[in-house]
């Protein structure tokens, strides 16, 4: 009745939601739940913009304790040997309302890191030109309220404690600390007395809630019967929360007496001197006589440790990079495995920054070391506490965690396990020798198992068809795979919709060779003596060809220089080609045209540096050049007092086909391109744009002879034609 509760509030800034195509589209929120929390409440706020493009939308929100949620909205495959458990998720619908507020309550949550991931449905795959359309904005924000008990009673091991439950609405919360090397805990509810002297009915809940799976142990006790529960493999060096609820009437208080007792596990391990000796040997080499000393000590320890309940092997954690750790066994990569007691390895993933990668454990059995040919080495990878009874139950589960089983034998000497986003905790690898005819034949047997364990950002670096990206939410880092060439899945191993090598080669050839359609435009420009325009088209054809050769997602890739440089040059050449073509059509004076060429190119280069994919980088120069062209044509038409251009053949056979090709090209570029059809729709864009340029280039001046190189290259003084411009006297 005198319990003091404190409420705390944690908030994070809202994030803009994205349609899902890979894990980078999911928006992650990271919270820390303090100790002694009895109630956790999430406040989830989803909202959408008021634009007309906004429609009804479903937001999926995933929850997980200890690590980011492992999700699979697209139903793709995970890599082989990866064990995945479904995430706990809810859906929030945004229909007629602009904002939706949802509450999620968690009673007695586990203390530590909690993660939320939110995303929209699957992405449509359509390539949208930036600035051409205004996408709807969907926002999501998660806030956390916690109710914490400041003076939670501590149940001391072996000491009975009496507490009172005031009413069913106010359950009793106590906690007990689980020491290291605890093998078993026995909890007893010795007495239960109500204030009305009636039959007592209480419910005891041991453990905290973790998502997506919760392993709380619940015992219902009625009457004055002694109620007890035994738990194996509890989380070491952590507080275990116990909640007792009254199931009686509202006005009756209940007095209960509780007792918790522990059975410890006596560990056996190599001596400290041997550990340091092995460490020094591995780093600086061994001195004379040292190997003999270490080997002798190891043999004595092996014979004397078989009476212990576990054999602990020293493991060194070696940090390599961000979310990259290697575990090195001091006594060598091979560990001895016996039948009497399990061999235990500690894999420390408790830094708070390790849960964003993948934990990989490889086991390789040395067949020559196994004296019993039909024996099997069973292993279990578990978090928070090890499994110490593999020889009896062969069940890879602890009191509050379902572990990941492995096994090796002479018929299958290798096993691998991949744990995606392992929760922040101490992880344990337990190994034990099992014989099919009973443990008696295994008492003298021994097996040597090579253990390779490491933490990597992305398993197998996402393979040849994926890119491992390091993602960040505030100070927390986690990794994800972005797949290409139609491959999908967590590690880009799902080839259901993958492009074959032939399709990849075809895509590369289409996107590169389609740029050869600029050759007719170059020939026409040179023939009509538009040499500056021809050089721009040559530049565009060259860089567009090699940019698309470098931009391919599969194996048919060739990069002659840095990708970013190729992309910039391709974009620059494309826009400048349109700019010089329209200015050339305007038929302004040469000096004005060339000034506009240079000035426009410099401004286009600046705008592309500011925003490379902005729609106005292309639309701006096009519109400005069109204004100049139309103004020039109107000026020529007024001056000549008839339509300009005056020839109907020019309109019918050149301008109208060129304008039609240009409009079709813009329509394909803006409205039809998707990730799936990009390689042929963008190739069509290349062909149409290059073809329109060849049609739209104006004819050469009537007084200028084509290919008049002999007149240009004579070595004598002469007065050149000035193309009806002013003569300049050189004095």
UniProtKB/TrEMBL annotation:
Disulfide bonds: 458-468, 483-492
Membrane topology annotation: Multi-pass membrane protein
Cellular component aspect of the GO annotation: plasma membrane
Primary subcellular site in the record, as a coarse category: membrane
One Pfam family of this chain: DUF3522
TM stretches of this protein: 506-530, 591-610, 616-635, 651-672, 678-697
Keywords for the protein's UniProt record, in alphabetical order: Cell membrane, Disulfide bond, EGF-like domain, Membrane, Transmembrane, Transmembrane helix
Location(s), subcellular: Cell membrane
The protein's name in its UniProt record: TMM8A factor
């Amino acid at each position: 009745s005198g319990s003091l509760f404190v409420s705390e509030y944690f908030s994070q800034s809202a994030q803009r939601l994205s349609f899902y195509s890979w894990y980078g589209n999911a928006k992650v929120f990271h919270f820390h739940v303090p100790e002694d929390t009895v109630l956790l409440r999430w406040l989830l706020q989803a909202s959408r913009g008021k634009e007309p493009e906004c429609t009804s939308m479903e937001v999926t929100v995933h929850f997980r304790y200890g690590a980011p949620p492992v999700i699979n909205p697209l139903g793709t495959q995970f890599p082989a040997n990866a064990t995945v458990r479904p995430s706990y998720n809810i859906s929030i619908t945004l229909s007629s309302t602009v904002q939706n507020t949802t509450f999620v309550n968690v009673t007695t949550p586990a203390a530590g890191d909690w993660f939320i991931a939110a995303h929209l449905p699957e992405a449509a795959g359509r390539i949208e030109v930036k600035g051409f359309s205004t996408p709807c904005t969907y926002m999501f924000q998660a806030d956390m309220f916690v109710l914490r008990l400041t003076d939670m009673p501590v149940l001391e091991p072996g000491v009975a404690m009496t507490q009172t439950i005031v009413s069913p609405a106010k359950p009793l919360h106590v906690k007990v600390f689980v020491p290291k090397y605890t093998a078993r805990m026995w909890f007893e509810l010795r007495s239960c007395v109500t204030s009305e002297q009636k039959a007592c009915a209480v419910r005891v809940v041991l453990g905290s809630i973790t998502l997506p799976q919760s392993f709380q142990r619940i015992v219902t006790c009625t009457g004055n019967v002694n109620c007890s529960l035994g738990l194996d493999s509890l989380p070491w060096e952590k507080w275990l929360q116990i909640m007792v609820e009254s199931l009686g009437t509202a006005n009756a208080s209940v007095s209960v007496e509780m007792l918790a007792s522990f059975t410890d596990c006596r560990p056996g391990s190599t001596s400290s001197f041997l550990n340091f000796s092995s460490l020094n040997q591995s780093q600086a080499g061994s001195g004379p006589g040292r190997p003999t000393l270490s080997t002798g000590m190891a043999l004595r320890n092996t014979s004397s440790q078989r009476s212990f309940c576990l054999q602990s092997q020293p493991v060194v954690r070696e940090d390599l990079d961000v979310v990259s750790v290697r575990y090195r066994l001091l006594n060598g990569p091979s560990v001895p495995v016996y039948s009497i007691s399990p061999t235990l390895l500690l894999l420390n993933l408790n830094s708070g920054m390790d849960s964003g990668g993948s934990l990989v454990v490889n086991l390789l059995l040395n067949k020559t070391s196994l004296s019993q040919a039909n024996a099997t080495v069973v292993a279990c990878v578990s978090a928070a506490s090890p499994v110490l009874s593999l020889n009896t139950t062969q069940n890879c589960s602890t009191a509050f965690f379902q572990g990941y089983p492995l096994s090796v034998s002479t018929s299958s000497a290798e096993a691998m396990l991949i744990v995606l986003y392992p929760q922040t905790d101490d992880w344990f690898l337990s190994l034990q020798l099992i014989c099919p005819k009973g443990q008696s034949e295994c008492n003298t047997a021994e097996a040597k198992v090579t253990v390779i364990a490491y933490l990597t950002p992305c398993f197998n670096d996402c393979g040849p068809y994926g890119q491992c990206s390091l993602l960040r939410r505030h100070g927390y880092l986690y990794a994800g795979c972005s797949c290409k060439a139609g491959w999908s899945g967590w590690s880009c191993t799902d080839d259901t919709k993958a492009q074959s090598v032939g399709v990849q080669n075809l895509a590369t050839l289409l996107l590169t060779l389609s740029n050869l359609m600029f050759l007719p435009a170059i020939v026409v420009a040179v023939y009509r003596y538009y040499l500056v325009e021809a050089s721009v088209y040559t530049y565009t054809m060259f860089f567009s060809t090699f940019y698309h050769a470098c931009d391919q997602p599969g194996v048919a890739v060739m990069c002659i220089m840095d990708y970013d440089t190729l992309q910039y040059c391709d974009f620059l050449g494309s826009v400048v080609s349109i700019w010089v073509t329209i200015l050339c059509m305007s038929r302004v004076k040469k000096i004005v045209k060339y000034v506009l060429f240079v000035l426009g190119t410099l401004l286009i280069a600046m705008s592309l540096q500011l925003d490379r994919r902005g729609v106005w980088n292309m639309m701006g120069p096009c519109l400005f050049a069109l204004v100049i062209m139309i103004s020039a044509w109107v000026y020529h038409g007024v001056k000549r007092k008839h339509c300009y251009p005056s020839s109907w053949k020019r309109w019918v056979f050149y301008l109208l086909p060129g304008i039609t090709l240009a409009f079709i090209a813009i329509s394909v570029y803006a409205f039809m391109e998707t990730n799936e059809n990009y390689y042929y729709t963008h190739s069509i864009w290349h062909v149409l744009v290059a073809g329109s340029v060849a049609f739209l280039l104006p004819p050469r001046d009537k007084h200028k002879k084509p290919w008049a190189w002999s007149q240009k290259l004579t070595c004598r003084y002469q007065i050149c034609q000035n193309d009806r411009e002013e003569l300049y006297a050189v004095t």
